[in-house]
Structure formats: structure tokens, C-alpha cells
Specification:
412 residues, Butyryl-Coa Dehydrogenase, subunit A, domain 1, Butyryl-CoA Dehydrogenase, subunit A, domain 2, 4-stranded antiparallel sheet, 14 helices, 13% strand, globular
Length: 412
């Protein structure tokens, strides 16, 4: 039997995080959208404790407590749990959610491709101490969706790697590069002639000489989150900071290993999109109710108004994206290959949230377009879900390749 219910533990966590989203995120949402490059320090410090205990990207060991069955259940539903909680945080404010101190995408890369020693060394720090950040540096000025075309280099010099190149659009790049105990996972090539086979991922810790935050972007949406340009100039890191084996020729992780990061993170990006879309749907529903407008769910389709049909479509698409997201997350928790399902969830959620928030603005007309409400902000915040961690087009390509059995060379 297929069970779509959540465990009591997840439901309890969801209710708690929703209260945080409603009581502490919504009140400062507009303020930090307008003050893009300022950080709500008190709020971030408060969320540090919650984030390290509640949201997981597979980052490190868990502290077992209570009965073995409870611990096993906790681990077996880790990604589903994170997806549910991320939806709630993004319902509060997606930019503020992305600003929460956490290992994030950089931590997911270490979890996916790092050795046991590297996981302990880089991820254990997120279990205690002061707030810390992780980030991933992939995109370059001349290299966007085609990660294999990157030009950043890593050259071995004795017992060190020397990294040179420029990375752009690094989420939390400023915090990870400059704050205590943060780190950035940098994709670079050790052999350009080898193509994808020459690409490796390297952990560059905060304040490493040669790593500079050159720019912090001004953005359309997710403005409370910093997005940085990082420049690497003769940036030296230890030899064992390459994810996988220190000896590159012996490494089995490489490009494919680090790409597995996205199997874990795309469902969570999809979950974030769900939160933004649900915020818009909830607001429209509440506005309709205040105006005495009732959605007639039991009325035949041919007798519904355009407004009712549009709103029902918004709800249906939101639920469809949620089910795809939970499925991809559940498969990861069960150790089932979810490459196809992760891309399906990301593609559906990305297109859904842009359509739903746009339709919400349209349905409420001048009120939706006004800055008196957060609806126009949610429409701006929505679009990034269709871009980062694989654009809509890239994810559709992945889906087609998996379904049809084509390689990247045969279908591009």
C-alpha cells in the first residue's frame, strides 16, 4: 500500500517551523527584501540551533538517542523531513531561509563525494559551535548550464592544490568565504583535455589566501540571501581537500560523483518552490474568503467561473509538485536511485511556482501588483527555483535522457 502520510515526528516539527515562519520570518520579510545586503543577525543566531537539528542535507553523523527504532525512523525519513520543513521556511520567506547558517549545497557535495574522513572533518563542525555556512562554486562568467565547460583550474604543486578562476552566482558565497568555519566547494579541472573526466571538486575553507569575494549581486528575488562572485588567484589548499581520494588518478568520484549532489538537493530546491507557491495560494484563498468569494469544488467544470478554474488549477499543480518532491525525497531516504525523480520534481516545481505566483498576481489585479502585500515579492522570488541547481531546460534534458536511455552525447 502507498502511504502519503507524514510521521507524527515530522508533523510536530512542521507545526513548530510553521509557527517560526509565521511569527518571525513574515514580519521581517519585506524589510530584508529591501535591505538586500544586510543580515538579520539576531534572527540568524536564533535559527542556528533549529537548522542544525532539524534540516539535513546528509551532513555527517547523527546523535542516537532513545530507542533504536526511533533513531532508525529518523534516519530513514531524513530527506522527506527536510523537504517538509524547507517548504514551511520558504512559506515564511525563501530568501531568509537560504540565509540560515547551514552546510547547504557545499555540505551536500561533501556528503555525496567526500571520503569518510572528509565528511567528519568538514561536516562535523556544523553539529556544534558558532553559526557556519557552506556554499558551492560551479557557474562561471563563460560557463552556465554546461558545467563540463568550466575553465577554473586546479594544479598540483607538491602537497598543495593551486586554484585559479572566477565563479559567479554562489549562493551564500559571501558568508561561506568570509565567516568563521565556513567553506566553499569549488569545481575545477585538473586536465582540460580530459573534459568531464578532468573535473574535480575542492573544499576551500574560509579566509584561505587567494579566495576573494569580488562582488555581491543585486537580485530580482531571494534578496535576503547573498549571492557572490568569488575570484581564486593562486589559491592554495591542502592536497587532501579534493573530494574523494587525494591522488586524482585513483579517485572514483570526479564529475559523476559530485553531480550526485543534485540527486539529494534538487528535491529540496523543489520543496522550497512549494513553500513560495503555497504562500501565494494561501493568500489568494484568504483574500477571496474576505471578499465573500467561494470556490465551488463540487460544481461541474462547465459551470465554474474562470476565476474558480484558475484557482483550482493552482491548487492541483501545487499538489502534483509536492507529491513528486516527496517521492524523490523518499527514494533517497530508502537508498533508491532517484536521478530521474529528482529532476522531475525540480522541473515540475520550478515551472509550477512561476505559473502559480504569476496567476496569483493576475487574479488579485492591482492588489497583487502592489507592494502593500508580499504577493509581488513571491512572484519575484519564484523565478530562481526554475534556474538554479539546473535550469528547467537542463532538467527536462535529464528526464528525457533517463526515460529514452540516451547519453548526454546522443541527446543534448
Amino acid at each position: 500500500m502507498i502511504d502519503f502520510s507524514l510521521s507524527p515526528a515530522i508533523e510536530k516539527n512542521r507545526d513548530m517551523i510553521h509557527a517560526v515562519a509565521d511569527g518571525t520570518m513574515r514580519p521581517i520579510s519585506r524589510e530584508y527584501d529591501e535591505r538586500e545586503h544586510e543580515k538579520p543577525t539576531e534572527w540568524l543566531n536564533m535559527m542556528w540551533e533549529a537548522s542544525k537539528n532539524l534540516i539535513s542535507f546528509g551532513d555527517g553523523k547523527k546523535k542516537a538517542s532513545g530507542k533504536a527504532e526511533a533513531v532508525e525512523r529518523h534516519l530513514s525519513e531524513r530527506t522527506v523531513r527536510s523537504a517538509v520543513l524547507i517548504e514551511e521556511l520558504s512559506w515564511g520567506d525563501v530568501g531568509l531561509y537560504l540565509s540560515i547558517p547551514h552546510s547547504a549545497l557545499g555540505g551536500a557535495a561533501v556528503a555525496a563525494a567526500g571520503t569518510p574522513e572528509q565528511k567528519e572533518r568538514f561536516l562535523s563542525r556544523f553539529r556544534d559551535g558558532e553559526p557556519k555556512w557552506g556554499a558551492m562554486a560551479i557557474t562561471e562568467p563563460g560557463c552556465g548550464s554546461d558545467s563540463a565547460a568550466l575553465t577554473t583550474t586546479a594544479v598540483q604543486d607538491g602537497d598543495q592544490w593551486v586554484i585559479n578562476g572566477t565563479k559567479i552566482f554562489c549562493t551564500s558565497g559571501l558568508m561561506a568565504a568570509e565567516k568563521s568555519e565556513g567553506f566553499v566547494v569549488v569545481w575545477a579541472t585538473v586536465d582540460k583535455s580530459a573534459g568531464r573526466a578532468g573535473i574535480k571538486a575542492f573544499v576551500v575553507e574560509h579566509h584561505t589566501p587567494g579566495m576573494t569575494v569580488a562582488k555581491v549581486e543585486d537580485k530580482m528575488g531571494i534578496r535576503a540571501s547573498d549571492t557572490a562572485m568569488l575570484v581564486f588567484e593562486d589559491c592554495r589548499i591542502p592536497l587532501d581537500n579534493v573530494l574523494g581520494q587525494a591522488e586524482v588518478k585513483q579517485s572514483t568520484t570526479g564529475f559523476k560523483g559530485v553531480m550526485a549532489t543534485f540527486d539529494a538537493t534538487r528535491p529540496l530546491v523543489a520543496a522550497s518552490a512549494l513553500g513560495v507557491a503555497r504562500a501565494a495560494v494561501d493568500y489568494v484563498r484568504e483574500t477571496f474568503a474576505a471578499e465573500g468569494i467561494t470556490i465551488r469544488y463540487v460544481t461541474p467544470q462547465t459551470k465554474l467561473t474562470t476565476l474558480e478554474r484558475d484557482f483550482m488549477d493552482m491548487e492541483a499543480n501545487l499538489q502534483a509538485a509536492r507529491l513528486l518532491t516527496w517521492r524523490a525525497a523518499w527514494m533517497l531516504d530508502q537508498g533508491i536511485q532517484n536521478n530521474l525523480e529528482a529532476s522531475m520534481a525540480k522541473a515540475k516545481a520550478g515551472s509550477m511556482v512561476t505559473q502559480v505566483t504569476q496567476k496569483a498576481v493576475e487574479l488579485l489585479g492591482p492588489l497583487g501588483y502592489s507592494r502593500k502585500t508580499l504577493l509581488e515579492k513571491w512572484m519575484r522570488d519564484a523565478k530562481i527555483s526554475d534556474i538554479y541547481e539546473g535550469t528547467q531546460q537542463i532538467n527536462l534534458l535529464i528526464i528525457a535522457r533517463r526515460i529514452l536511455g540516451y547519453s548526454s552525447q546522443e541527446l543534448n
